[in-house]
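Blackboard transcription, Thursday session:
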Amino acid sequence: MPTIIGRLKLERFDKDFRLLERREQPMRSWTVGLMNILYVSHAQILPAAPFTCLGDINNTTRTMSIEATWGSAGYRYMISHGRVAALPGFATLASVNSYDAGNDGMVQGCDIGIQIGNDNTPVDARNLRMGRRIGHGVRAADAGDATFEAYDVNDDASQNIITNDNCQLAQAFCPQNDFRCSSVELKLFKTLAPAGPLTVEIRAPENAVSGVTQIKPTTTVLATGTILSAAIGASPGAFVACNFGTPFDCYAGHKYFIVCHSAGVDGANYFSWRHDTAGALYDRAIYSTTYNHVNFRARTLDAWVTSSSDVDSDYMFRTIGRSIGEMEYGGCEVVHRVTADPNDAFDIRRFFYNRSGGAITVNEVGIAAQFKSYSSVAGARKTLPMLIARDVVAGVAVANNEILLATYTPSIAV
Amino acid sequence: MELKRLTGKYQPQVDLANRLEIVQPDKELLLPGELGATVEAIVRKGIFNPEGKITNHIGPRKSESFTRQFMDFLWAMFINATENNPIPIRNTSNVLKNVGFNLTTFSTNAAAGIILNGIVVGTGAVAPDISDFALGTIILHDAAPPTANRMQYSIVTYGAPAADATTSQFTITRSFANASGGLITVTETGIYVKNSRGDTAAPDLWYFMTCRDVWAGIAVPTGQTLTINYRPQAVV
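(Written on the board underneath:)
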C-alpha cells in the first residue's frame, strides 16, 4: 500500500571527491512541522484566524496561515510555504512578498533545506529544531567558553530596573556564528539594597509589522537565569555573569533579545544597566526604519515602548558559549524526480564542506522548510524556518577538508 | 473465624449493554518512518446527526494512500514551483495542467454540496494505483433529495495538528448523508485538492486527486449518514 517512505544516504569524500565512506539508512523522520505546513494549506488557514503552533526553529510560538489574496494577482500570489530548496550558506532568498517589513521577508539558505548536527538524542515527532545544529561557516570547535556577540564599550549612561515587575529592559543581538549560549555578562550596578534577584532571559523577536519601526521581544523565554543582588556592586557598574540553567543554541543571522527584569526592586532600591547613548553603536540588531539599533523598555510587563529615548541606545552585553565547529553549507537541491509506476521518488541533497581546521562528527540530519508567519493583527508577518524532518545517524566523522553529501530520497513504493 | 459453606446456586446475571454496533478491528497503521494517512468510516442513524446511533464503524485503518499527484505537489512545494516554470500535474479530468505552487495549493476546504474538492466518495471498485487521477465513479451531491444514488456532501472540517513522541497528524472530516430513499454502498473514497492559476477575478481552478481508497463496501441505508475521517500522519 503506497505510503511515503524514504532513505537517508550519507557519503563522505576527500578534497578530490574520492568516495571514502557511504552509509544508508531508512528515513525515520517526518515531524509535526510537516503536518503544520500541510494542514495550513489543506484547510486554507487565513490570517484572520491563523493557526498557532509551537513553532519555528527557535522554539518560539508562531502563527501560521496562507497569505490573504492581494490585489488582482491574488491567485498568482506565490508564497514561501514549505520551500526546502535553498541557496548556499548565508545567501538569502526573498519570500516573494515585497510588502514585508525590512528584512523579515528573507530567509538564509542555511536555515532551510537539509541541516546537520551532532546531537544523538532520539527523534521525537515533536522536535522543533536540531538537537545541536552544526552551523554554516569555517569556525573551529571551541575547546572552552568564548565570547560571541558583544557590545561592551562606550557606555555613557544607565537605565534603571526600578519598579516591582513594572520594568523590563531588552537589548537585541544577532550572532555571526551558531553557538550554545550558556551565559551572558551585563554591565550592571545597584542602588542601595534591592532584594533581587535580577532575572535575565533570552527571547526571540516578534513578527515584523509593516510600518512599525521596531520589532519587540516575544513572550516566549528561550533561556533564563538569575543574578543575585549580592553579586552586583554599586555604581559605576561592572560586568556580571548570568548563567542559564539550560543553555540555548543561538543561530547565526537570527535575532534575539536579552531581557532583564526583577520583582525585588522598588523606587529606592533598584538595579541599573549601563548603555551607550551616543557615538558608534551596536549595529547588528533588528531592522528599523528609524533607528540603527534597537532596545526597549517596558513600563508594564511586556508592554514595550517605542519612543526614541528608550530605543536609541545599546546596553552593555557579552554572550558567552561554545561552537561545535562549522561546515560550509552548499545549496539544497530538490532533484532527480523519477516516476516509474508503481514507484515515484525524488532526491533532496546538500553538500557540506569542512574547512574548520578540525574533524566534526555528524550525529543527526534533518530538513527545515520555510513558512510564513502571518497574522492580520497589525499585519505582522515574518518568513521563518520550521523543522519538518530529523534523523539520528551513527556518528560520521568528517575530517578537515573533507566533504559530506547528505541525500534524502522520499518515495512512494508499493 | 467460622467458615460458612456456600449453599444454593449462584447464578450471575450477565447482560449486554443496550447498544449495538459493528466495529471492525483496526488493521495495521503506519510504521515508523512512514508518511501516509489513516482513514476511518462511521455510519450513524439520522441525516447529519452527530449524536445519531452508530450502526457501522470501520477503522481507523491505514489508507491505501497517496497517488502520484501528492508527490507532484510535494515536489512543487519543496521547490516553490512558479507559473513561470510550472510542474505538469494530471487533474481529475485526466488532463495535464501546468501548476505553480501558490496560496490555493492543496486546498480541500470545500463548502457543503461541492464535490470538486475535499473528501469525495464513490462506487468504483478497481484497486488503487498511484497513477489514479480520479475516483472510478463519484457519487454526486444530492441537491434536491430524494435523488436516487446521490448523497448530500457536508462542508469539510478539520482537526488541527497534534503530536506525541512518535506520531504527528491532523484530521480532514466530511459527512455524506443518504436521503435518497434507497441503500447506497460506498466502495471508494478519496481526497481532491484544488489549485489555481491567474488573477483573482477569474482564475483557472483545477482539481487533483492526492489520495484514493477502495473499501469492501460501506453500506449507508437511507436516512443514515457516513462520516469519513482522513488523517495525514507521520510516524518516527
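Lecturer's comment: Chain A touches chain B through 61 residues (CB under 8 Å).
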